Structure formats: C-alpha cells, structure tokens
Amino acid sequence: MAPPRSKKVRPSFRRLLKTSDVKLENKLKNRQMKQQNVAKKQRKEQKKLRQAVKEAVLRTPRPLETYKKRPEEEEDEEEFLETLPTDMIEDEDMQQMTAMARQASFITRDLSSCGPVHGGKKRSSEVVHSYEKVPRKMVRTEEKEIIHLLPIKDKTGVIPQTVERVIKHQEQEEAAEEQEEPENEGEPESVVELTAEQMELLRAQKINQKKLLIANMASAVISDPSSNIKRLKELRGMLMESDPCVAVTVRKLVMVSLMEIFKDIAPTYRIRPLTAEEKGVKVKKETQRLREFEEGLVSQYKFYLEDLEQTIKDWKQQKKKRSQVVSLQSYQSLAHVSVRCLCELLLALPHFNFHNNIVVVLVPLMNDPAKQVSDMCCDAFRKLFQEDKLGGASLATVRVVSGLVKSLNYNIRPEVLRTLLSLRIQEIQMKKDVEATAPKKKFMNNKEKKSLSRMKRKWKKAEEKLEKELMEVEASESKENKIKLHTETLNIVFLIYFRILKKAQGSVLLPAVLEGLANFAHLINLEFFDDLLNVLQNLIQSGDRTNRESLHCIQTVFTILSGQGDVLNIDPLTFYSQLYWMLPRLHAGAPNDDIIILLRCLDTLLIRRRKQVTLQRAMAFIKRLSTLSLHVLPNASVGLLAANRATMHSFPKCDFLLDNEVQGSGFYLPELDEPEHCNAQNTALWELHTLQRHYHPVVRQFAAHLSRGAPSEGSAALGMELSRRSPVELFEDYNVKDMTFNPPVAPPRTKKKDRFTHGATLLDAELQRRVNEALDAKEETQLDFTATQTPSQH
Fold first, then answer.
1. pLDDT of 718
2. How far is CA 41 from the centre of its chain?
3. How far apart are CA 99 and CA 108, in angstroms?
4. 499, 500, 504, 506: CA torsion to nearest 10
5. Which of 451, 605, 680, 682 sits CB 3.0–4.6 Å from 620 for a disulfide?
6. Residue 221 exposed, middle or buried by CB count within 10 Å (0-12, 13-18, 19+)
7. pLDDT value of residue 461
C-alpha cells in the first residue's frame, strides 16, 4: 500500500520562479527559527528532568524512629505492650524475627546501604570489593626504538651495530609542561611582592620592548609597503594589548604609529574596488602586486578606522570591554587619542577612501560636552575648510552639519556654526551670471561683409573657430565643477541660517547666524533680499538683541545693499539711525571686539555708499565718533580716528567742524539720535584738542593730523605706515589684549646728580684744581668774603 499523499499542494516550478529571493530567504529563516525553538524547549525539559532526578537521589530519607509521636500514641503503645504475654516467645526467636523484619521492611531498612536485601551468604561474605581489584595504574613497558649504526668488520665477518633509544610519549611531555606551568604561575606572586620602584622599572622595560617592536614593524612597512603590508595587521593586533600594566600606553602608541604610517603610504588618489570583469582579466605581475597592495591597504585602513570609532563609542557609552584590562578613566584618554588621530587623517587624506566616514564620526563630536574634544574637532574642520581647494570635502561636511542641527532641534553649541565662517567661498553661480555667461552669437554687419574679401572671410571664420577651441581648453572643467560645489555648499549654509531665523530666534545660535549672514551676505540671491531685510529690521527694533547682534544685523543689511542690492529701491535710513544710536553704548566698559564690527559697518555705510549719504549725516557720525574715541581703549581710538580720516577725505566739506563759526541756524543736539536733524554743522571737534594729550603716541599723532584738516601732503601728513592701513588693520595692530602697551612706553629719564663727579669735567684746569681741593677738604672752612683778592701778575 502506498504512503498517504500529502494534502499540501507543492508549488510548481513556474511558481517557484516567480517567488522572489527575499521571500525564499525569509521562509528559510523562519524554518530555522522554528527548529531552534523546538530544540531549545527539548533541552529545557531534559534539564528539568535531570534536575528532578538529581534532587531525588540527593534527598536522604528520614527513619521512622526519628519522627516524634504524640504523647497519647506513646501511652497507648506502652499499655498494649504491657498487656502482651511475655512467656509465649523466647528471647532468641524474638531477636531473629526482629532482624528478619528489618531486612524485609522498605521503611525501616537503611537506604544508605547499596547491597541487595536478600543477598546470599556468598555475596555478603565478600570482603574485598570489585573496584579494589582494579589496578591503580596500567603496567606499561617502555617502547624502545632501534637505531642501526655502521657495521664492524673483523676476521669472523661483518658484525651489525645497533643502539636502543627509549621513545618519550606525549603524556610525559605534557606532564613536563604541567610541571613548568606552576613555576611560571609563581612569577606573578613574585611581581606582587615587588616594591613600587621595582614595578615601575619593570613597566618601563616592558614599554621599551613594545616601542622597539612597534618601531621595527613601522619602519618595515614604510620602507617597503607592498611587501610588508601584512605587518599592518600585526600592528593592529597590538590594539588589543591585554597586559594591564602597559595596555593603555601601548594602545596609544599603536594608534599614533598607524596614523603616521597611513599618512605616509596612502596614495594621492582614491582606490576603487575592482569589478568582476576586471578581476577575471589576466594582468602583469606588477599590476597584480599593485592590486593586492591597494586591496590590503584599503582593508587595513578600514579596520583601523573602525577600531578608533569603537574606542570612542565605548567611551561615550561608558562600556568596559576587552577583558577589563583598561579602566573607564583610561578609556577617556584613549578616546582623546582616537579623536586626534581621526582629525589628523581628516586633514592629511581628504582625497583617500572613507573620508566621508571620518566626517560623519567627527561632526557630532563638535557638539560634545567635553570642551577638549569639541575644540579639537572644530579646529580640524576650520583647517579643512581653509585648505579645501576643490570644495568636495566642504560640501560633505556642511551636509552632515545640516543634518545634525535639524536632528538635535537646534540645540547645539554656537561654535559648530562658527566653523562655517572659515569656508573659502568667493564666487558662486547665480542666476544672472548664468544668463550673462550664455554664449552670444556675433553677426557681422553689411559694411564689414563688403569690406572683407572671400579669402579674408575664410580666414576670419577659421580664426574665430580656433579662438573658441582655445577658450574651451583654458576654461578647465575643474573651475566649473568648483563653482558648482561652492554654490551647493552655500545653499545648504543659507538653509541652516534661514531655518534658525524662522524657528529659533530666541536660541543662543542667533549671534552665530547673524555673523555668518554678515560674512556671506554678498553671495545671497536677490530673491531672498526682501524677506531677509524685514526679518533683520524686526530683530533690531525688538530691543532684545545685544550690541554685537545688532551690529551684525546692520552689517548684513549694508553688505547686501552694497553688492547686488544696489538695484533695489530701499532707503536704509532706519539702520543709519540705529547705528548712530548705538555708538555711545560701545564704550570701554563694553567688549572691545565689537569695535571691529563697527569699523566694518562704517566702511560700508560712509565710504562705499558715499553717494547715497548726505553731508549732514556724515558730519553727525564724525562728531559722535570723535566723542566715542575719548571713552574707548587706545587701539579702538586709533581705529575710530582712522575712520574719521577716511570720512573727511570722502566728504571734504566736513572741514566745517574744524572752525568755530556756526553754519546755519540752530544748536547742536548731542542727545538726539537722528543724524539728519542733530545740527552737527553748528559744533566743532573739541575732542581733538584733548586727544592731542593722550598717553598713546599714535592717538596723539592722529589727533594732531585731523585737527589740521587731515592733509595728504606736507608736515602735518601721516607717515606711510599709518596712511596706507585701513581702520581694521590699525585696530588689530595696536591691540592690547595681552595687557601691555603697544608700542611700549619709554622709560623715564634719569635725574641729575646732586654733586659733581670726579674727573676732568671742566675746561679750565685751575678751576678744576680748586674744585677738587674743595671736594677733598676734610673740614669745612669758613669763607672770608672781606678779603680782597690781589690780581695776578702776568
């Protein structure tokens, strides 16, 4: 009879073809999981059964006599025994019956004995147990090996020579090794007994040995990378150093050594993986050796980066791994070394593989609570932005920063956004630039056509074609690609800034955003101007901003209006008034770094836009800046006076302020915050007279120069070292951040002595002799003024 057919319908071959590989793989995984679950249940049941049997065997039974009886049962038993007749059974029979009952009873029998209950006399008489008859050790004869030597020949004939040698078994060798092991195990005990000085000396010896080993392997790899690429794996294995005495130091040394090795042997191009077709092609030995070297280098570099990343993760998650040879406190120093190695590789190998992976690891560490780690990463990315000439690394970094800002809901440190100020973006591809750079067809008019002969027209056409080809060769593709990358990078940067302006105006990131907008304002597209100006104006008028934030807003507005925004019909009078109102609040009690932003704003407001500035406004700013120069540090005074000098050169009629005569009607209103209506033309620059007595020599020089009308030539003109520098440069050159005078103050002159010094200091020898006699006299003699002096006869 045939076996019953399964009711489950088997899928056809066509249906199997339609089934996807993912579905088949999932089915296989489900089947394996079911089998594993069934096996696990069976193992659990068997374990429970073995445990129950073990408990039953180990449980010792308690004899019946040990149980306590009730007092009523004891009295009844005694009365029953007293009523029994004692003369019916003899004592010997009674003892024999009791013994037989004990042997036959399961309850009263001693369960500790393993012998049979009804054992015969023959078995019970055996005194020697069976396991005693088993020999303690197997009798073994030594195996001998016969070695045949050279034979000896004598008169009788050839005599063969042999030697027997005992063969040592593996067990004897293992026993010898086991005897050696306790000796080796005794060494740590001796180490524990060492003093602290001896232990430190032993540790230094171990570290020196490891250093020599690392140096040998590193020098071998650097000398011949293609042949010794496998040494990188050995070096990387030392990152798992298990000796707790030197584990931390050795791992740090290996991390730094591998970093230097990869910086030295990494090629100047990106290594791509080979395709299946390329692997199948037969190549030369040199090419095959180069491929093997590149493949090994990429794999070891990848594993090294993974080790560094894992070290940082273990430190962040407070995990204690690797056989607990490294403490959690030591993991912090290991993590710092790992971060430093990643930063070095980020700067040294921006063209090599896995550069974007390094960026992904380091960007979140810019927002790390540990200041040392955060500053290290921020400095690395600043250098990367400054050294990036193509723009690919900058674009990858800005993308990751944008994702970090969005994922953390704008809860990041301002230093993360300030690193974007180091981006080297000078030009981008704007919409009007695209239209301007579109190729335009040149057509010759009829006069030019008639003036040229047929041959000349041919030459003209060939010449234009050749010029076009030369222009295509000169305009390299790298420049176009660079502009494209810079455009995309700047779009992401502005996206970050605009998101914060829209959703997080009250966050600590706003100053960094305003500073970034002021830095890149000349690259903003025209379509964002109206909305951005409205937002900045609302921020300034709110009154909640600090001086620095308000200055950044004003700088952004005027940078936009000085560049592409000059086509817009916008009157920035509100921003002029706001800056004029802020000037008295930038005194020496406020941060001195705000003055440099003020100087940049003044350069944009009064110098670059001088055609849109009235004379009244310019004179009002000159008067208030002169007043402010009395209340700031000397380097700020130099910068403000230099700004006044540039303004007076741009507006020559401002020399009214150097005259006592009143121009027009009205009085000067210094407390009025409107520069157009404060009547600045009716006052004079009295502050210059006070500044000419300033302790700083450069301030005195500028004050004297301005009081004479700021001439470019003549005795009152400034020197070349001062006249050719901008106000910002002068502010930085004479900075006093180190709390020292710049330039240093000259020491005071020495006082004159109260008496004459010994020596021939007088021209008249006779007078000198009398002076010496008077100085050498021991007792003071009374001078006789009545005596007449006889004239000397010649």
1. 87
2. 50
3. 11
4. -150
5. 680
6. buried
7. 81
